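Honest question from a wet-lab person: if I give you the sequences of every part of a complex, can you actually get the arrangement of the whole thing, not just the pieces? Trying it with mine:
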Amino acid sequence: GDIAFRFINYVRSMRERQLQRKLKHHQNLSWQEISESYKEDKFKSLGDSQVVVCDINKEMLKVGKQKAQHLGYSEGLSWVLGNAEELPFDDDKFDVYTIAFGIRNVTRIDLALQEAYRVLKPGGRFLCLEFSHVSNPLLSRLYDLYSFQVIPVLGEVIAGDWKSYQYLVESIRRFPPQEELKAMIEDAGFFNVDYQNLNSGIVAIHSGFKL
Amino acid sequence: VRCQLYSPQRALQVSAVLRRVSDEQKKEPLASSSQQEFDSHPTDHQPEQEPQGPRPSYTGQGGQESEDYESEEQLQHRILTAALDFVPEHGWTAEAIAEGAKTLGLSAAAAGMFHSDGSELVLHFVSQCNTKLSELLEQEQKLVQLGEAEKKPTDQFLRDAVEARLRMVIPYIENWPQAVSILLLPHNIPSSLNLLTSMIDDIWHYAGDQSTDFNWYTRRAVLTGIYNTTELVMMQDSSPDFEETWRFLENRVADAMNMGNTANQV
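Yes, you can. This is the full assembly:
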């Protein structure tokens, strides 16, 4: 949901920029042309861009929809219930597939990657944001300490749920590290696979292209 | 013939080359002269060797099969070449690259493979122009060797070579200032300098420069100066068919020749 909102903002700002650039080149527009170009903007601020938000959990979708309404995003969004290992979409449909903090919860990551490959158009991009492994040994120890000593405690105090946060931290440790995930993405058929560490490895963004 | 081809992606997994074919693994020669840093390029990237064996995605990819036979690098070159058509409209930007990708039947997201400031597009174009120039000079040399053409005097040769090379820029002259500024970005300087020096080298090579002494450096410095100043003049020239530019060029080359003669006399 959040990524969808950012994407919509991005598309809108790009279109505005393009429109500005076009207007700059036409020095002598009549008043009618100018008002026409502004009118267009209101009705199709997204152009042909659309975002599909997919989740396996209906409750999550509901939360997303509420948030969208609250923030005022109405056009260009669709909400679909689906399983990442078996997406309810046709082949070659999407330009970009993003998954943020979701692939860790998928049982068969390779299936999810294959599905991502399938629904992407040629040239399309796969992007995955996920917890990963910290390479720096000092930071790694501090991070472990924080993860196992602080997070579950906070979970208990704030949400009354120690177990879930214990599970969270453990699942992060069990998730494959950057290079391994990169190899898995390549196995699914993606090219130009690369990753970028954020916060020296606590989180990583992996990217691949369907070529 | 020394031909410096610029490859858009550093640390490319060249072993992704020829998915269906060879059994040997090729590793990208990381020549230090063409090394460059992309600021926003993902860190921690190591050139990796692709696993052997048939790719499972060969079958059933429909129109993609043609891509299976070429390397990533070749595809990137194709995208950049296609993107050149969109430069007059979009400038040397990622948008032009996206449009280029679309004409090849790829999603616009493929432009994400390249740096977001259009660097690769400019470098690709410059590299292409240099290659064309080399081919042109090579052909001319062949004609001379076969006796079908006269060998030009050095100043004429230099003038013609520089003019030919600069004329290749004319279709993009509106956006050329932008291109030059991109070439001067710190992270592009190693590559753009490389391309420039190898082009100058080529011209002198075909001009018949056999020197092995200090003259080698002076000649290159002088020609580089001539080329760069003429390029700048061209960007501001509004005369028909850039007559002013070629006249400027003629004068600069004549000056250089005179300087050389005077130096010899002293």
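Two things worth pointing out. Residues 119-145 of chain B form the longest helix (27 residues). Residues 131-264 of chain B form a domain with the Tetracycline Repressor; domain 2 fold (CATH 1.10.357).
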